[in-house]
Design brief:
The complex is a heterotrimer of chains A (about 575), B (about 120) and C (about 525). Chain B is mostly helical and about 120 residues long. Helices cover about 45% and strands about 0% of the residues of chain B. Chain C has about 525 residues and is mostly helical. In chain C, a hairpin with a 2-residue loop joins strand 3 and strand 4. Classes of the chains: A mainly alpha (about 575), B mainly alpha (about 120), C mainly alpha (about 525). Chains A and B meet through helix 11, helix 13, helix 16, helix 19 and strand 3 of A and helix 3, helix 4 and strand 1 of B.
Amino acid sequence: MLDFLTSFSPAFILIAAGVLAAFIPASNISSPVRKALLIGAPALALVLINTTFFSQNQSTYLGGTMSFAGIELTTLRIDNLSIIWGYIFCFAGILNGIFGLHEKCKITDTSALIYTGAGIGAVFAGDLITLFIFWELLALSSVFIVWRGGPKSYPAGMRYLAMHILSGVLLLAGLVIYGRATGSYAFNNIGLDAPGGWLMLLAFGIKAGFPLLHNWIQDAYPRSSVTGTVILSVFTTKLAIYALARGVAGTEMLIYIGGIMAVFPVFFAVLENDLRKVLAYSLNNQLGFMVAGVGVGSTLALNGVAAHVVIDILFKGLLFMSMGAVLHRVGTTKASELGGLFRSMPYTAVFCMIGAAAISAVPFFGGFVSKSMIIAAVFEDGQFIVFAMLLFASAGVLEHSGIKVPYFAFFAHDSGKRVREAPWNMLVAMGIAAFFCIYLAIPGPFGGMQYLYNMLPSEVAGEAKFIPYSADHVVFQMQLIMAAVFAFALLKRVGLYPPERRAQILDFDWTYRRLGLALVKWISAIWSRLGAFVTYMLKKFFGMIGRRIYQVFSPAGTFSQDAPSGIAAVLISGMLAAVLLVVYFF
Amino acid sequence: MSDNKPTLSPQEIVDRAEAHPAAVPFLWLGSHKTQRNFIYIPLAGMIIFSVLGFVFPPKYPTLWEYGLSYAAIGFFSYSFVVLAAHPLFKMLSRPENYYGEDGEELELEGDVDNGEGSDA
Amino acid sequence: MDLLSLFPEWVLVHGPAAIVVLPLMVGALIALSPSEKLSWATTWFVTGLSGLMSLGLLLQVISHGPIAYAMGGWKPPLGIAYSVDGLNAPILLLISVIAFVCTVYALPSVIAEVEPEKRSPFYAAFLLSFAGLMGMVVTADAFNVCVFLEVSSISTYALVAMGSSRDRRALPSSFNYLIMGSIGATFFVIGIGFLYMQTGTLNMMDMARVLQDIGPGDRVVQLAFAFIVIGLGLKLAMFPLHTWLPTAYAYAPSFFTAFLAATATKAALYLLLRFTFTVFDPSWHFISNALMVIIAGLGILGMLAASLQAIFQSDIRRVLAFSSVAQVGYILLGIGMATTLGLTAGYLHILNHAIMKGALFLAVGAFWYRFGITKVSDMRGLGTTMPWTMAGFTVAGLSLIGVPGTVGFVSKLALAQAAAENGWWWAIGVIVLSSVLAIVYVGRMIEQAYFQPVPKINDKYIKRNEAPLTMLIPLWTLALASVAFGIDSHWPTSLAQGAAQVLGDGPILLVRETMPAIPAIPSTGGH
């Protein structure tokens, strides 16, 4: 049994569970079964990944090979890089399942399972074709989650889908060119010099939210449902980081892209009123750190990226969950409408603050042990400009996620809203995430930091050994945090802190949502003027062709009449003459 | 315990009744005085850690080798981000329904469960 | 596991003769059978046995190379020789498996469509037709090919005519087929006659040897080639010579249409390959010209014109029949490239098209069996009233379009790769265009079945009325095969590569001195 289960990618188990979930009717009696699938399938996958990898002694496990149209596919490659993503994706799948227990939505459950499966499948893909298949499945399954946000999420979902299909097409084009040129579809370090490398970088970049390609994150994520946003925040972007780390690690350009990516969302996050959108910008900002780490590409940097992916999924999930709980109870996450909620939702408030502390890299909270590794790697690489940008971004993180989100939701001016505490299942999910946010950052024999560090792709030992809890590191990190909090308190006190106002903040998506739309409208206006004439001509032209085709090919047409045998015989003679002509004289 | 203080204002009694039981001991967090005096905590923290910064010099010897440096970075970066928000808001903000998709409320109606009915 | 060791020795030795003689003899016997059930069971048994023997032969060919069989102990070139090699063994297996699967289906279908007193002769004629096709494929004697061609053709005319109890139009269409088929057979015989005149032998390998001596310049040899191509072109429904096919397919009994569509044209295609590549020499100037201009050219024409015709048909079977002509075009295009990749792709499509078109015609027969449906417009709501049948139809239909994960995709991809290798980029365009046309004509039917409401009778929706299991099992066997070989195409591809290798080796020459025990045929195999 175990042999059978480990003979293919665990992604298929999740996808099969998702298909099964689609057939379980949405009644009160049967939904526990579906919920059991939702939590059980990722748990099973987690166990299988572990046993598959550790039941053998190689550093890379290759399995699940199948042949598709003559090309050998490796659907299961577990090595010390991919296994981290595999673990955390499964774990996040379980947490999402718990968080969504109260919800009786078949579509979310089904697509969440398939989406999780596609993420895991893509991470374990040993070749580019498998990666592409799961890459597209990821987009297709997740768009249904976006659409769960109600009618207003449809346009955003369509834009989301368009971006991701574009990403898939770029990946396909890249991999075809790459495979043609090199004769191999293996998914290893590709590099930008390889043919098709740029196309694939662009494909990864869309999913990773590179600057100017990032708008789909802030556009689609905040519009999904309470649980939908939590599910979405985990997989797509982290998978892109994996693809970058696997395919183009050490590309210097990525360091600068990552720096810009870490800095620019900070400014938008301050302006934004919707706290879930603030978190979406903050997601982008954290991805910037990871992209910069991938760009450096040293052992320390890649370790930092892997650790930060784990921690980021935990704390970003936690923050999105807490905002989901607020949305679930209050019905809005606009900072201007919230405030003082700690009176009604004290546990949610505590969990949210733990998440905020983790993302702000307060010592003994998650971010402190992972983010600092990336920053140190950037420094050691001699990239002082990007190093400064990342420090600036760290202060910025404090602003939007560390202070703004918990402060405006739970403290600030009392909005007078009195609601009930979040449902128990949400509290459990948040509690687990919060526990790991702290546990994984605690050093020493009783803490979990050793487990996190032991899991990293390259042994954190020797020269590359990284000790987060050095006195100077703790002190200076605390200086940064305390100074920033002080700045917040000061600005607030002197009244320079901008008030929360409801508004639409323009971002780069203005170019296609407004400028592009205006262009299309202008063209269509011109077109409609030309239209009458052109349509007439086209109709005439195609009508003529259509009639001709019909006359020739329809059952009553020249071609399809049952030719009398005599005519057929003449035809045969004609054919014979034609063949003879070719044979004799060509 | 503060619960047993006999001198509760009417407003406080209402607040206590409305709040989640676990939040009752922490209601002081919401008071105006607390929010106003909060500033002293980070100020004290900043001063303490700045002093400590001279005791434990940073690992990376650079321009900002002085004990205060990170505090300065934190303070100025943060202030810059927040102050930049004013001109940026003037430049980038538009009415909420600018793209014609969001209508009055962005949030969902069907999914809201404010706990007035029975809890699932 | 060694499957081959499961077959008794005599199957491997006498199999080539047994697969032809057995159905021929039994066919003659069951014409007299008093009970149609008995006839059916016998037919079922015989086709099954032939299938097993064909499998044995195929395995033998794969592992030990070609098999030669001298009829009655007379050594070739004087005696009639049968031979099984990498080229015809898969076709033998294909014909007998399709016959076996279709026979399961025949039980309900024949009862519904053929008058009681004609049922035993019906099975007898079917066995004759089957024996004829097997004989055409297995024999290595040119005149013997003519004989079996006639055996299968004449029984086919009779079988098509038996559709008259369902639709009277079967009679004129059978007559039309008879005239055309006879002209084709005559042309073929004339071609063989010319060859005999020039070579003085009828054994194909011997013929090839003498032809090598004569060389490509001989006018009579060229004339013979032209006659053979046209004669076979008629039989295999090469594009402008296909006019007999749509009506024959449309009015023959359902079960026989499925068998005919899946196998008859395939046997003729095999003969075209056999003669062009191993009797004549494809390196000869006039052969390569004819391949490129006539075979590939007409293939392309057929792909487009017949697909267009399929779009405008109102009768489901005629849609599928025209689609068959178009699919023959794909195969001819592959053959016309005359490269290893092209031949592999064409041969693969021979196998794959038989599977999917068989499934489609079986499903259509089931539609008629339950609701008397023959028109595309009558397919409304079939997705609800016959969900399993319609699902099988849809799977095979998607395969016909060439959706990834189905056999249709595998062979179209192989064909496109072959065209690319050959530098025929325009051919890829035609393949894509023809696939788009296939989407239209298949989509039209699927749209009717799934997106149109179930029709009402007396203000009540028609109830669900699924086809019987004896129909569903054969249908789904083929439909699942089309998916299974679409996902793992290793086995059919290796068979096609083996066949292409035989063709690529060029003419097989009979070396008279060393012939007696083991033929001097280059060893070929699937792997």
